[in-house]
From TrEMBL:
Domain HTH gntR-type positions: 25-92
Name assigned to this protein: Transcriptional regulator, GntR family
Example GO molecular function: DNA-binding transcription factor activity
Gene3D superfamilies in UniProt: GntR ligand-binding domain-like, Winged helix-like DNA-binding domain superfamily/Winged helix DNA-binding domain
Superkingdom classification of source: Bacteria
InterPro entries in the cross-refs: GntR_C, TF_FadR/GntR_C, Tscrpt_reg_HTH_GntR, WH-like_DNA-bd_sf, WH_DNA-bd_sf
CDD domains to which the protein is assigned, alphabetical: WHTH_GntR
Keyword Transcription: yes
Range of residues in the leader sequence: none
Keywords for the protein's UniProt record, in alphabetical order: DNA-binding, Transcription, Transcription regulation
UniProt KW Transcription keyword: yes
Length: 247
């Protein structure tokens, strides 16, 4: 078994954010994870409506199952459930964007400081493999998978910091700011750069913590500085977007 295959099996066994086999999950879990994926991969844009009837049809489940999945997504901060409107992919007003990035810089700065200089060989190899995969997807034109690898890179840093409450806050901020990037990033990039991630791995290997924290702050500031606060078209065809994910 090569390292990438080992990494996939390892992450599956942890029951975290990486999808497990269908047989091990409830219907609600399948709907939740598929929707989380297409939202995080920016296939579903902020502001897109998530209608219970359509989702129940797409996933061949009851509306009750869909409703529970949407409630879980609302807890994660990636879906808003509004009276008389229903569920929509979370949007952020331009004036609120700096607050979310400030919060993410504080939390992720603390997470990477805890990790810097303490990586195991396995953790170092895992992070480098993720950066290579991210670069391969983007270079091959698979933007959605590249985006997911970019986000998983940051999720993994949160996971290995050995502070569950801090990791949970970090993941929520990562997910929320990823939606902000989807809403306001006109360049079509994922917001993160593979070269930045490579540099972050280097500083996590060698330390010190204050340099790692500073580099994370600069990395996230660079993402925020490249946002474009203009109106963009919203993809609303749930059947088309989720078609690939029904297999």
């Amino acid at each position: 078994m090569n390292f990438n295959d080992f990494w996939i099996e390892y992450t599956l066994s942890q029951g975290g954010y990486v999808e497990k086999s269908k047989g091990s999950k409830s219907q609600e879990g399948i709907v939740y994870e598929r929707l989380f994926d297409v939202i995080i991969e920016q296939k579903l844009q902020p502001g897109a409506r998530l209608t219970e009837i359509s989702l129940a049809d797409i996933f061949s489940v009851s509306r009750t199952v869909v409703r529970r999945a949407l409630l879980r997504l609302s807890y994660e901060g990636v879906v808003d459930i509004k009276p008389n409107i229903g569920a929509i992919v979370t949007t952020t007003e331009p004036e609120d964007v700096p607050q979310y990035f400030e919060a993410r810089r504080i939390v992720e700065g603390a997470l990477i400081r805890k990790v810097a200089g303490k990586l195991t060989t396995f953790q170092e190899e895992t992070l480098n493999a993720m950066v290579r995969e991210e670069n391969r997807y983007f270079m091959g034109g698979n933007r959605a998978r590249g985006l997911r690898k970019s986000i998983d890179f940051h999720f993994y840093i949160a996971d290995i910091a050995n502070n569950k409450p801090l990791a949970e806050m970090g993941k929520k901020m990562i997910a929320r700011t990823s939606l902000i990037v989807a809403q306001y990033n006109l360049s079509g990039s994922g917001g993160c750069a593979c070269v930045d991630h490579s540099a972050l791995v280097d500083v996590m290997v060698n330390g010190p913590g204050d340099i790692a924290e500073s580099m994370m702050h600069e990395h996230l500031q660079h993402i925020e500085d490249n946002l474009y606060f203009g109106k963009q078209n919203i993809e609303t065809d749930l059947y088309r977007i989720l078609e690939v994910d029904r297999s």
